[in-house]
Amino acid sequence: MLKINKINVDLAGNHILRDVTATFEGARTIGIVGRNGAGKTTLLRTIMGLTKIRSGEISLDGTDLTSQPGHVRAALHIGYAPEDRVIFPTMTVEENLRLPCQVQGMSATQIDQRLATVLKVVPQLEPMLARSGSALSGGQGKMVALGRAVMIGTRMLMLDEPFQGLAPKLAMEYTEALARLKEIQPDVCVVITESNIKLLGSIPDQVWTIERGSIALNT
């Protein structure tokens, strides 16, 4: 269980997150909805350790993560797929998928097992494994980013606006992949941000609204 308590974050002199307190429980899918600039991306980046906080606390199962860098949080099996995908263009899709596990020092056998799981979750990736990251469409890149996050995110998975710009067919495939993930890894906590609540459909178990850097509604 990951908890954030009274988190405040400033960026470029602007107060972005304001006393945000929330609990992310396992076996839940949480949708965080807010307009552009509401603080959705900053919230995920802060949880991931990519944004410096001004005040507040972050803990995972009672362990304080507030001052821990991003790679330490990833080692605790928190996966993150940013909105802009960040696919390495000179690497193949398979190399992009394996990278986070290799950085964490996982064995070849463990990485192979994780890759096999990812291909069950996102079978569309298998025919793309040898393809260069530079040869992917925007939608394909989002599918690869999902797979890469799943490679490491066995405890928590954070997806930043994954449905934005996806064609209807790919959006359906993405939704189906999340359903398969919940079947294979039922205990994982999945967090999805979106500016349009309609894009989330019936995926989340809970929907939170973020407005001006504060979680305004928790249902």
- Counted by DSSP, the helix tally is 6
CATH architecture: 3-Layer(aba) Sandwich
- Side by side, the strands of the main sheet go 6-7-8-3-9-10
Question: What count of domains describes the coordinates?
Answer: 1
Cα radius of gyration in angstroms: 17 Å
What's the overall average pLDDT, rounded? 94
Q: Which outline best applies?
A: globular
- Which CATH class is shown? Alpha Beta
What does the main sheet amount to? 6 strands, mixed
Question: In terms of per-residue confidence, which ranges show pLDDT below 50 for 5 or more consecutive residues?
Answer: none
Helix content: 25-40%
Element order: H for helix, E for strand: EEEHEEHEHHHEHEEE
Give the DSSP E fraction (strand runs of 2 or more residues). 25-35%
Query: What is the name of the CATH topology?
Result: Rossmann fold
Number of strands: 10
- Note the gap between the termini: 18 Å
